[in-house]
Design a protein that fits this description.
303 residues; alpha/beta; 12 helices; Proline_oxidase; oxidoreductase; flavoprotein; nucleotide-binding; EC 1.5.5.2
């Protein structure tokens, strides 16, 4: 039943027709509980509040299914506008983005052009830019683009998904590059990805230890308190300094744990999504954990 629910919401997340229709539904599905508004000002207000609790942030202007060059260019311009806002508001915040939003599905040259403009602006401001990982069909191109960008820009990194068979090999190949490590949120076939939760959890712990032992900055993105406790124990036993890693969680989920980890002195960052194109992101969050469905419906009926 759990897999059926997960597959259902993952299917919905990739349905472009529903994605367009969802914008008419507003926030009644409960998205307002996990998405920090539709514009930059709303996102900056959320970031400022989190900063007051000692929590760092990364903001992501949501957008998917970009197949028009002009739309990709506008997305890049909006990313730069977001960087400007981070500086003007003087908040502790990075930028996250997806390459498909910047033209990856149109032409890699367009995507590279947009990324270089964004990274140039971010480097001037001293802001780190995280390239979010998407489904496996975009995975090889994302790794390739990252490697090319790193030749010129040291203020960027990406995400490695623990459910992929090649995750450990890619972590090794990207030694020295700041990585966000996650379990993985897309439905992938057995040929490329582990299917059992226990196998994914074990590989997640493995690549976390691997990247930390390589002396590379590691963002551990999970709401799984069992994983978090294992990481705490590992870094303590191996004298790994706290400035070599951070914990990350999503905006709106397990909020008290955000504050607790920050209060315990761990570097902590909240992933703050915003924008009108929230549908795909929200559906993937519902797919990840059955509890999230109840969470969403609670938001729906409280309207």
């Amino acid at each position: 039943m759990k897999n059926l629910s997960r597959n259902f919401f993952l299917f919905l997340s990739q349905n472009q027709t529903l994605n367009k229709s969802a914008k008419r539904w507003g926030w009644k599905l409960g998205a307002s509980r996990v998405v920090a508004g539709e514009d930059i000002n709303s996102a900056m207000q959320a970031v400022q509040q989190l900063n007051e609790d000692g929590i760092m942030c990364t903001v992501d202007h949501l957008g998917e299914f970009v197949t028009d060059e002009n739309e990709a260019l506008k997305s890049a311009e909006y990313c730069i506008k977001t960087l400007d806002a981070i500086v003007s508001k003087n908040v502790d915040c990075n930028l996250s983005l997806k390459l498909t939003q910047l033209g990856l599905d149109i032409d890699q040259k367009i995507c590279m052009y947009n990324m270089e403009n964004i990274l140039s602006a971010a480097k001037k401001y001293g802001i780190f830019v995280r390239i979010d990982m998407e489904d496996f069909s975009h995975y090889p191109a994302t790794i390739d683009i990252l490697k090319k960008l790193r030749m010129k820009y040291d203020n960027t990194g990406t995400v490695i998904q623990a459910y992929l068979h090649r995750a450990s090999a890619d972590v090794e190949a990207l030694k020295g590059i700041p990585l966000r490590l996650v379990k993985g949120a897309y439905k992938e076939p057995p040929e490329v990805a582990l299917q059992k939760k226990s196998d994914i959890d074990n590989n997640f712990i493995h690549i976390i230890k691997q990247h930390l032992c390589n002396g590379s900055y590691t963002a551990i993105a999970t709401h799984d308190h069992h994983i978090i406790e294992k990481v705490k124990k590992f870094v303590q036993e191996n004298n790994i300094p706290r400035d070599l890693f951070e914990f990350q969680m999503l905006y709106g989920f397990r909020v008290e744990m955000h504050k607790t980890l920050a209060a315990e002195g761990y570097r902590f960052r909240t992933y703050v999504p915003f924008g009108k194109d929230w549908y795909g992101y929200f559906m993937r969050r519902l797919a990840e954990r059955p509890q999230n469905v109840a969470f969403a419906f609670k938001g729906f009926f409280s309207k």
